[in-house]
Amino acid sequence: MILVTGGAGYIGSHTVLTLLEAGQDVLVLDNFCNANKKSLERVSALTGREVPWVEGDIRDAALLDDVFSQHEIDSVIHFAGLKAVGESVQKPLDYFDNNVNGTLVLCSAMSRADVKKIVFSSSATVYGDPASVPIRENFPTAATNPYGRSKLMVEEILQDLAVSDPQWRISVLRYFNPVGAHDSGMIGEDPNGIPNNLVPFVSQVAIGRREVLSVFGNDYDTTDGTGVRDYIHVTDLAKGHLMALDYLSRHDGVHTFNLGTGKGYSVLEVVQAFEKASDRKVAYEFHPRRAGDIARCYADPAHAEEVLGWTAEFDIEKMMVDTWRWQQKNPNGYSDSTLS
Ligand code: NAD
Ligand code: UFG
């Protein structure tokens, strides 16, 4: 059985669905600080399988000991954490406590239970402002905010852990920009309050929840002056976890992979693709650059393809069509959705 921390969240719920469809058994551990239980009910409805879950915090060592002693867990996929870059600047202690201390408590409990296989959610943010693109896994790492530093710290902790004990099998997955939703439109991203990220914001403008998108900067050295990112469909990302876990069944040590498509799209290209998918206009206006943003960031995903056999299947059109389906079926996210 696979313990999925943060399994009720955006990427977690899609991964739980993929795991269940592949015939795996899972147990979700989530404190629901940024998730709705409906996501798990919907995964259950979509798969026709029960989704067992425990409400609790990864920083609760006693709870983790109970979880590991009561269930036959052989591996962990670790999504739980806080992820808002701006908020991390305001609340660094919360971010280090949740993301770094949380992972320490989790790994210690795993060690006590002799469960030494873990897939960790890292981020392309660990590359800072890369000297060139596409980005390979051996590029220098750097962090420009507490969120990014928390990811880098955990990566380093996991490296040290593997050196200390060769039984550990660890996969570090560096996600580029996850977007989209399951193509049923039943699960998707449901940000609290005003979305920080581009695609949820664009989607809320299209549905009429927000008036206008602020495009942060049109003076970057890119094709149209707006920022370029590697958007990746969340279902492709989910599949990457399954393949990483499978790889760990055959290999020890730490294995780090970029999960991206290798293609970069500008903010205006994303807006255009969304307008096409939704057949709605997305009003936007230019604003100054957002602090900490970089001009371009996209992956060289060749390592994941060579080693895991993983490649992204879905293109930007599908990412936008699926986001729009989710948005239309759930205009206000999970909270007051009329779907069961
Ligand atoms: P999310 O907020 O939707 O999911 C995180 C889940 O963890 C939520 O369900 C939340 O309730 C839970 N959680 C948070 N702290 C917890 C704790 N202490 N104990 C138990 N549960 C806790 O975010 P997501 O987009 O699904 O991201 C999942 C992981 O991927 C995170 O670690 C995030 O940093 C990483 N990541 C996300 C992105 C992105 O753009 N979405 C990019 C790169 C990396
Ligand atoms: N953008 C806008 N307007 C908005 C939001 C974003 O113009 O309202 C622009 C940004 O300036 C950037 C692009 O859209 O050029 C993408 O921005 P996002 O906020 O969607 O994503 P980021 O690339 O800034 O960061 C995301 C996650 C990070 C993660 C990183 C790399 O938020 O947590 O991808 O994985 F670290």
List the keywords.
14 strands, binds uridine-5'-diphosphate-4-deoxy-4-fluoro-alpha-D-galactose, single chain, 7-stranded parallel β-sheet, binds nicotinamide-adenine-dinucleotide, 40% helix
Secondary structure elements and pairings:
Elements: E1 2-5, H1 10-21, E2 26-30, H2 38-47, E3 53-55, H3 61-70, E4 75-78, H4 85-90, H5 92-113, E5 117-123, H6 146-164, E6 169-175, E7 177-179, H7 198-207, E8 213-216, E9 228-229, E10 231-233, H8 234-248, E11 253-259, E12 265-266, H9 267-278, E13 284-287, E14 296-297, H10 302-308, H11 316-329
Parallel strand pairs: 1-2, 1-4, 2-3, 4-5, 5-6, 6-11, 7-10, 8-13, 9-14
Antiparallel strand pairs: 9-12
Helix pairs in contact: 1-2, 1-8, 3-5, 5-6, 7-9, 7-11, 9-11
Briefly summarize what is shown:
The chain is α/β, with parallel strands linked by helices and 340 residues long. It has eleven helices and 14 strands. Bound molecules: nicotinamide-adenine-dinucleotide and uridine-5'-diphosphate-4-deoxy-4-fluoro-alpha-D-galactose.
